[in-house]
Amino acid sequence: MSENLNATTNETQPSSCSFNPTAEKFGKIFAYCLSFLVSLAGSTVIGIIVCKTKAMRKPINYFIVNMAMSDLLFSIFSMSRHIQMLFIDSWLIGGSLGQALCKLVEFLSDVSIFVSIQSLVLIAVDRFGAVVYPLRYPPISSKLCPFFILATWIVAMAVLSPYLFAMKMFEYRGQLECRMHWSEVFGESLSFKKYFVAILVVFIVIPFILIATLYIIISLKLKSQKIPGEQSANAEEKRRQREQNVLKMSIAIVSGFAICWLPVFIGYFLVFFAVNTLMMSCGFQYFSSVAFLMANANCAINPCICFIFSRNYRLGLKTLLR
């Protein structure tokens, strides 16, 4: 998504907007490299901790690992592409390999985003079952987790499969370019605007409304819970405290994703529905640059949230460092 928006702004924006191009370039390089390294290390460590710690093998942690792997995929394909474009604004690899990578880079980058969103929904459903119906069988058991995780990848790949046909590498002004040729492949019957709005509603708007609803119900349930008796008061209080800590971590992950990715979706909305003069402004170029940085930073923020809010992840990290 950010790749397409980036290509659009590069084509339409004036090149004289930056007061200090060198400082801006090095600032972006530092931000992207920092996000890449933190995401790479953090996501890998999250996966290792859950795999090695038996007590951590619970549905919510499996879904967090699924998000971590999708963040890792995004870092490798999208973030590295952003860093490369700061040095050389052209596609580097030609031939059949270059054509295949042109299709896969954008495809896998966006697949990782949709996998993360579906993982957020699964985390919310898991918390809803654990808090609202604690005595019933969990809605998503550990045995079913692999099937749900596999489903997130299958659904994301199926929905974004048109990218594999629309993304093409070509030569332009002596340089190789990798861009989307949607109208050439699908014609006017299915415009990219209609396609994007459809997936925006189905995979962004509706999931976040569902997530918000579930967390509101969970919060109200935790506040209304009463301790049944003096003998079980301490145990019940500890259980409720654990649920509140997990809830805080889950809400922080959702909030981080929403805050970091909202500017990119706003940018797409402006590209599709705003006047062309707005896209030609320096203000939109600055906005786009910040949107790209925030979206990429989300991959580095997620592991940090896990270590900040979860004592189990902190203990797992200490064990690995020994």
What does this molecule look like?
The protein is mainly α and 322 residues long. It has one domain: Rhopdopsin 7-helix transmembrane proteins (Up-down Bundle). Helix content is 78%, strand content 4%. It contains twelve helices and two strands; from the N terminus they run H-H-H-H-H-H-E-E-H-H-H-H-H-H. The protein has helices spanning 2-12, 21-52, 59-87, 95-132, 145-159, 162-166, 182-186, 192-224, 233-273, 276-279, 282-309, 311-321, and strands spanning 167-172, 175-180. Strands 1-2 form a two-stranded antiparallel sheet. A hairpin with a 2-residue loop joins strand 1 (167-172) and strand 2. The longest helix is centred in the C-terminal third of the chain and has 41 residues, at 233-273. 33% of the residues are buried.
Quick structural summary:
The chain is mainly alpha-helical.
